[in-house]
Request: fold
Amino acid sequence: MASAWINIVVSIAALLYYHIGITRALLDIGVNYGMLGNNLPSPATVVQLYKKYNIGKMRLFDPNPNVLNALRGSGIDVTLGIKNQDLQSIASSADAAKTWFDTNVQPYMSDITIQYISAGNEVVPGDLAQYVLPAMQNLQTVISQYKYTGVRVSTVVASSTLGSSYPPSSGAFSNEARADMVGIVKFLSITNSTLLVNAYPYFAYASDPTHVRLDYAQFTAPGPVVRDGDLSYSNLLDAILDAFYWAMEKEGVSSVDVVVSESGWPSAGNGDFTTPQLAQTYNQNFVKKLLAKQGTPKRPGLHLEGFIFAMFNEDQKPPGVEQNWGLFYPDGTPVYHVFSEA
Reply:
């Protein structure tokens, strides 16, 4: 009898350990993996670093085969970017889209969970914006033919696609972006996809610290800072995202969610605006918000997804702030602590 109870206790402990391990391995947090450095670790080492800190999602800016091979069987969900310069070709025909997909995605589908494919990064507005929607449509055709129902097609936009964002209810696409954005968000609504938004409270604060409070930018305000009708805002990120919801609603689209494809705070490069302490505070609070599955004041019931920018300090970017967004140094040690080790 005692032996049976011991076996039961051991079995329960093993199940709990397995469950906790799975939960930690699939932490619903993403980090952008940029590769503009000449001293960065190998992709295999990077994947292990993600797993060491239980980072469950990775955003790639292009389909690097070395990284994709390293991700096989890792359990890390991937948001995969298309190079901006490839958009015109993919937009030209479904056959061209299939060629791109068969080369860069299909070989990995049995071993990697591709969550999103992003048709370009911050190309709206601009010369390449005209290719985003047809590229998305052609990719969706290919994905539908393969019956990959879990893969969603989107694009990444910057806050600059908004012509108005304050207060959030005034949110509207700019004159330069509107024609392209209307087609894009209507496509996302039809395909039940999401809009990927790069949202940086840091830039708003650094450009106008007199009118943008630091605690409002860093999720540390003790109460509401901005009131917009019946809605109250205690952090700037929520205000940015709700401005996008308002902008989409003005175009007749209310069913598209927003995913934060990039957000973060540099740890150096701009004097007192960029310190490790400020970067740590912002990113720790951003992670807390994501893990709490909190929405925004306008969409409180929605589970916000997000990605920190970025995994590493990258020395081949322009000197200053651009080289100092990383959570980690190239040797894998933290610039400051945000995630706990497994």
The longest strand covers residues 114-121. The radius of gyration is 21 Å.
